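= Tokenised fold =
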Amino acid sequence: MWLLCRCTAKYVPASFSRGVSASFLHVLRRSRSSWNSAAFMPESAGFEGVSGRDALHDYSVSHSESFWGAVARQRLSWIRPFDAVQDCDLSQGRIKWFEGGKLNVSVNCLDRHVHTCPERVALIWERDEQGSEVRYTYRELLEMTCRLGNLLRRHGVKKGDCVTIYMPTCPLAVASMLACARIGAAHNVVFAGFSAEALAERIRDAQSSTVITVNQGVRGGKILELKKMVDAAVQSCPTVQQVFVAMRTENEVEMTHRDFTLEEEMLKEDVVCEPAPMDSEDVLFLLYTSGSTGKPKGLVHTQAGYLLYAALTHRYVFSYHDGDVFGCVADIGWITGHSYTVYGPLANGGTTVLFESTPVYPDPGRYWEMVERLKINQFYGAPTAIRLLIKYGDQWVKKYDRTSLSTLGSVGEPINTEAWEWYNRVVGEGRCPVVDTWWQTGKIENLYLQFL
């Protein structure tokens, strides 16, 4: 089984410059004595008059067209070059980036790294069962993605369709997202903790004909009946024609006429899948708000602008370097998981951790034991979890070696002073910069940065 053992409303930030420029300052301030802009950002060698940190920051704001054009040409692989960098007018609701360009997001996240470093680890799946992590190389993830892409195509999924994914954080969930991107279909990832009713509402709104799920989820030592949730949800979703079911556990579940065992179907497919050329402004994915402030709203993210922003902020906000292990513990059902567990790290050829469990299973030292065992360099978690762990005392943190950590991140609601101070002093030992990021209501992808 692929999961148990390894087999071989559109919003693209108009304020890119402001958000990423702030992130540059975070890194720039860490090396005041001797600083080389070209070493920090190779594209800056072509920026006239830029030789220092402040000059690079100023250039990114005052010459945004030149800056983003150079970064996009260097950081993304294009099938067809773009004609214009941006065409944005918020007063008219017009936001367009890199028009005329064609690319494929999965190629940018997989193929180009396979060409240079096929055996580099792409994913470390930190399963719910502590100490049983599984690693997947870029070559293995590309093969998995291609099999899934071919499978979806064989079952009639085409460019412009939307596939709903209702899975825990696991390698097949990542491959499902990338397979959709490869064939030009949008994906709609629904948090696996949502109810059948919440899932059904999102399937109907996205008009999905295809759902990908697992037989059961495992989280915090408990079994989650995800297939049963899907069965209940699709009863009120007339558009659903097929459900692909991966096997996370060895327990059998009831299968209907519309159900297919995902691993069995994937083995019938070739490991090469032709990527679809996508326009820069084609839809990459839908992601629905939580619904806590009303009816869930489906937000649309497009291809090039989103991928570039995710990749650049991942590298510079978190000071990610080649060879680092990036530990974002957010579920892939949220925008944080999309951007900083999947797309940002993979676009940069990084190694990213998929965390399936909870902060307190089997005990409150779970995060920090994982940091020691996987030698995580950047740790990115939520203030809610930090406040929870404070209650258990410092001993659960200090029990484990955290010298691998170089950057700490906080995401979700704004972090309170007590939690920040504990995070900085106890977890980071006062030596790790804390990147504090938070989202607007509905988790719209807009990054604000506060460096404390």
